[in-house]
Write a structure and sequence with these properties.
This protein has 283 residues and is an alpha/beta fold. The chain is 37% helix and 14% strand. An 8-stranded mixed β-sheet has the order 1-2-4-3-5-6-7-8, sandwiched between helices. The radius of gyration is 18 Å and the shape is globular. The two termini are 35 Å apart.
Length: 283
């Protein structure tokens, strides 16, 4: 682990001094023999806030452009360091061939473990990057929104993100509004009907009393993930009196990320709303 941390420091310092992005394998020199890439976008003269960015893609793939790179560049331009995490997903072959009836493949808790490791690395190197280890949050989109919120709901308190931003997220695995493709990808074909896992990963049932603050956005015209997912999470957060901001737009659909053209003028307001929210959170 020490050698891996030295590698991470070296790469991050290159980013700091060269102003470029370089990928980090978060599991290098660990017992986990997987390659999971994280790309840092460190802010010059930043405010100490950092965000692990989790692109969406139904837990099968990733939207690395609108929900990854564009998000990170926007955060970086606003003085917030970003780390785009290409967490493990089931992959297109698993989607098409359904081979996880026989082989394990990628499934829960692989993506959550990746987020956990990413948070650990960013916090451990906070002193070298101008980041405050108490201000490291997670932002996710669609299935990535489920992953970011899973970090707040399912990880031990000391390892949770400091805050969560969840955009048009998948939330439930049990309600009738479930996004079935994400559920199949996350659980795997041979576990998708497991009632215990479905309940565990239905985040509306697992908001902790000491949950970190949450920024939540969706659109009522979302054709992909039923807007009731976000409503379930908003209700669960309100029931536990968790500090959060919920914005539901009438238009915008799904998958707009930080694009300047996708979605609608209304839904694209989420970016300025988030900046106002985070500044209020860390006055």
């Amino acid at each position: 682990m020490y050698k891996a941390m030295r590698v991470v420091v070296s790469v991050i310092l290159i980013v700091v001094t060269g102003g470029i992005s370089a990928q980090i394998n978060i599991w290098e020199e660990t017992d986990c023999r997987k390659k999971v890439e994280m790309t840092p976008y460190l802010a010059d003269n930043g405010c100490g806030i950092a965000v692990i960015v989790c692109p969406g893609g139904s837990y099968f793939w990733h939207d690395m452009k609108n929900e990854g790179r564009h998000v990170a560049e926007w955060l970086q331009a606003n003085g917030i360091s970003a780390f785009v995490l290409k967490y493990r997903t089931a992959g297109t072959p698993a989607f098409v061939l359904r081979y996880r009836h026989i082989f394990r493949g990628i499934r829960y808790p692989d993506a959550l473990n990746d987020l956990r490791q990413a948070l650990k690395i960013v916090r451990s190197q906070a002193g070298n990057t101008g980041i405050d280890s108490d201000k490291v949050g997670a932002m996710g989109f669609s299935a990535g929104g489920h992953l970011a919120m899973s970090g707040a709901a399912l990880l031990p308190k000391a390892e949770r993100p400091s805050f969560v931003a969840s955009l048009y997220p998948v939330v439930t695995m049990t309600d009738s509004c479930v996004h079935k493709r994400s559920r199949r990808a996350l659980l795997g074909e041979n576990r998708k009907n497991n009632k215990g896992l479905r309940h565990l990963l239905s985040l509306e049932h697992h908001v902790p009393a000491d949950c970190p603050p949450v920024f939540l956005v969706n659109c009522t015209d979302d054709p992909t993930v039923n807007c009731h997912n976000s409503e379930l999470l908003d209700s669960a957060l309100s029931l536990k009196s968790i500090p959060h901001k919920y914005i539901q737009y009438k238009s915008g659909g799904h998958g707009f990320g930080a694009s300047d053209t996708k979605g609608t003028a209304e839904s694209r307001q989420w970016k300025s709303e988030f900046i106002r929210w985070i500044k209020t959170l860390y006055k």
